Structure to design on (464 residues):
């Protein structure tokens, strides 16, 4: 197992190039949230030739729809949602400079191809560890689509947010490698 | 005839929604601890460690285990000698969901299938009502997340496919689901009945405590075979590679039509939430 790598957003092409599938990372800085409904709106904007509501260059999008915060907390439990639902939208955002995605579950061949082309990595956070993950989120601002409720785009400030690299830009895939290593068939 | 006021039902449902989402059952916690001891993959052990810590935080702070606090699904056993007064049973349950999801800081995840507009209060609930003998009312809340539900399936096998066909389908479904449904999972299997009945018994199978086997020795053997084959795939916790993809396979069966072999596979994430109350 490799050492833990500390990353700070925004990510550069060289930050992304050094990451390998299976690397454990601690993400610091700004991360934007978006899931199904917000992705549809972002891509609709691009299709209409309009600007996105935030500068996506070098940024990470976290696929999450948090639970409401109890009084005194900045956010409720906030674990990753399943990523493949964002596959139709992801390449368009990578083309605009997106450098990282955090979710859980496997991506399509098309998305993995776009990740190599646009130098973008895919991280997994532990699905269902939502109460634990919320502890690494220190500040939350809704920056777009407040009407979407849990699906609104939020700007998160994170400290040592734990994730693991699933797909790097070199074509490695933790889900494939891990399965092969422990397969008994 | 015993009277139960709908207010009592609403209050009970409100508390069930919150408790089910905050407090993971001891059976699942035991399986996590066993996983931490037996999983060979370091990444997999890390997953079990995180899940134990997560469940403890949720219980202590009374916050949900998972942000996806689920579709509010209920199994209701209504004694024939109960008279519900002051309103309708389904309205009372939906009101309990409304209050529980609002007051409990639970996520509202239910929307119109076309417009995708959120209903705003996590209603309507899915309510399965069975009439039973007696004068009590049992309510089981079993909220279910969207991610693992999306990986679940129902199919109509041919009778010629037999037990091997059933095993192969369930194993293949798990392989295809892979890392998506938040493994380590629990797999509910419903065999027989009709197109709509098989998934219902698959869901009910998930209510059985984790770590137990079906009392029917033949079904218990099939559960064990499927579990071993699924875990031999190496997919492991969260799909990171390892020995434990599924913590249990729970099968229920029901007679079926001479022409059919219905099969449902309900994949449940590790946040296998259910709480019950008897009024």
């Amino acid at each position: 197992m490799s050492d833990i790598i500390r990353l700070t957003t925004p990510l550069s092409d060289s930050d992304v190039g050094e990451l390998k599938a299976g690397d454990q990372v601690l993400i610091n800085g700004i991360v934007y949230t978006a899931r199904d409904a917000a992705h549809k709106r972002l891509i609709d904007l691009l299709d209409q030739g309009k600007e996105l509501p935030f500068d996506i260059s070098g940024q990470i999008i976290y696929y999450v729809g948090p639970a409401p915060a109890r009084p005194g907390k900045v956010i409720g439990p906030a674990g990753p949602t399943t990523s493949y639902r964002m596959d139709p939208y992801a390449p368009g955002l990578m083309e605009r400079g997106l450098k990282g995605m955090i979710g859980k579950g496997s991506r399509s061949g098309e998305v993995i191809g776009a990740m190599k082309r646009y130098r973008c990595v895919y991280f997994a956070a532990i699905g269902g560890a939502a109460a634990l993950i919320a502890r690494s989120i220190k500040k939350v601002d809704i920056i777009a689509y407040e009407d979407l409720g849990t699906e609104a785009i939020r700007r998160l400030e994170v400290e040592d947010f734990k994730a693991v690299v699933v797909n790097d830009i070199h074509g490695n895939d933790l889900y494939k490698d891990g399965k092969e290593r422990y397969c008994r068939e | 005839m015993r009277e139960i006021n709908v207010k009592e039902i609403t209050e009970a449902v409100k508390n069930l929604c919150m408790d089910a989402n905050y407090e993971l059952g001891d059976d699942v916690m035991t399986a996590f601890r066993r996983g931490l001891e037996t999983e060979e993959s370091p990444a997999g052990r890390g997953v079990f460690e995180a899940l134990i810590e997560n469940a403890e935080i949720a219980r202590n702070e009374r916050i949900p285990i998972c942000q996806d606090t689920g579709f509010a699904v209920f199994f209701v056993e209504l004694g024939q000698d109960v008279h519900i007064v002051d309103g309708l049973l389904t309205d009372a349950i939906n009101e309990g969901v409304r209050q529980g999801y609002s007051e409990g800081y639970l996520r509202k995840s239910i929307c119109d299938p076309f417009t995708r507009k959120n209903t705003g209060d996590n209603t309507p609930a899915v309510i399965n009502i069975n009439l039973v003998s007696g004068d009590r009312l049992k309510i089981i809340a079993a909220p279910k997340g969207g991610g693992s539900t999306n990986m679940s399936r129902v199919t109509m096998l041919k009778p010629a496919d037999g037990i091997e066909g059933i095993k192969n389908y369930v194993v293949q479904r798990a392989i295809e689901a892979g890392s998506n449904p938040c493994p380590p999972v629990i797999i509910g299997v419903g065999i027989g009945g009709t197109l709509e009945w098989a998934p219902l018994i698959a869901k009910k199978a998930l209510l059985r405590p984790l770590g137990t086997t079906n009392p029917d020795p033949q079904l218990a053997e099939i559960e064990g075979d499927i579990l071993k084959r699924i875990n031999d795939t190496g997919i492991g916790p969260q799909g990171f590679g390892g020995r434990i993809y599924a913590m249990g396979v729970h099968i229920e069966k029901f007679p079926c039509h001479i022409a059919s072999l219905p099969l449902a596979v309900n994949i449940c994430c590790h946040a296998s939430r259910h709480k019950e109350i008897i009024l």
In short: Chain A is about 25% helix and 25% strand. The mean pLDDT of chain A is 96. Chain A touches chain B through 49 residues (CB under 8 Å). The longest helix of chain A spans residues 36-47.
